Amino acid sequence: MSAVLRPTDTETTPVRLDSNNLGTLHITPLDAPLGARVSGIDLRDRPTAAQVLALKAALRRHHILVFSGQSPSDQQYLDFTLHFGTVFTPPRNAPVLGSDPYGNTPDVVRVSNVDDGLLGNYELPAHADHHWTPQPSAGSLLLALEVPAQGGDTTWRNLALAYDTLDEATRREIDGLQLITYNPFLRSKKPLPGGKVNYRTPDIEPVTPWVAHPLVRTHPDSGRRALFLGEGTEVELVGYEPQAGAALIARLRAHLLQERFAYTHRWQVGDVVYWDNQITLHGRTEFDPAQRRVLKRISLSGSTPF
Fold it and tell me: Which residue segment(s) compose the domain that 219 sits in?
């Protein structure tokens, strides 16, 4: 088994935050390459200024925050989330999960395999949400209302550690490269004769609109450098020879998918996970279609990657 990697040794020690209006808020790092567990706060209540600042600092450090035993209404859930930013709104010509035929999206997206939900029971590869939009979301919160007995687990991956552990020659090779991630919702309207691809070559007509972002992104708050690449989305390196580009992307994907960068969450009803979409990937295992899985997601607006 690979050793657990962490950005700093200080993150291995639980931090008790019990002063300056923090109340009973507790933030304890997970024994994993990313993530911390949050206790002593109820999302139905209005957080103090000190609590909001502490949670923001914890997200910068740990990249995902796990809350348990929560039961907010949609409005309470939204009110809490808005302390950390505004709701993500995609361009009307760049559909995302939850977009209606006119390009509108709800503030609270129902991620479910039943009723009016938006996803089935199939496996989802590791990805960053809204990667194909001009300003991808900064982060999301996901609330579990119903979970299957088995499966449907979510794995998050630390893209900063993935970048940091690349050899120096590879970092020099990829710094400054631009990557197009093509919109899978648009591609589904123009399916390819040979099926899905994960690297576009010149013989494949691109879907439009598209936007290029840095392959190595700088986090806008922490300054950490991170790979900004998903596991299976259709991508293309700008100005790169196709065969060499496909080989480079395959090599980077194999690297970032190593378990030493990952934390897997087994959902319980009442869990809320808040993740930084700018520095992590997340994916889901499949589950029995006869089982119900109902979650609600709120995504926060982001900025142009640099």
Answer: 159-256
